[in-house]
Design a protein that fits this description.
This protein is of the alpha+beta class. It has three helices and four strands. The longest helix has 15 residues.
Length: 94
Amino acid sequence: MSAAVDDIQWGHEQVRFKAHLGGYVMATATSDLSLISICQYFQPEDVNEPVPTKRGVSFYVGSWGKVVEILQECRDALGDLYDVTKTCLDADIH
């Protein structure tokens, strides 16, 4: 994700990034709007791809550093509990 953010900030071509965070939550970044979105998706029965819900948050690419800093503080606060919890990004199935 950080590489995509760098590309957007430096104006490198068209950037579209999407990552599954787990539990139908996706992170996306696009250079069109210079936004990063973290949104919950759902899978309708009649559609092949998951579609976004209204649940989520978006912020400007310039805020990415602060978001990473806050996430690190959350990780530090969890301590040992974080070490025994595997996220979707850590799983070998992707």
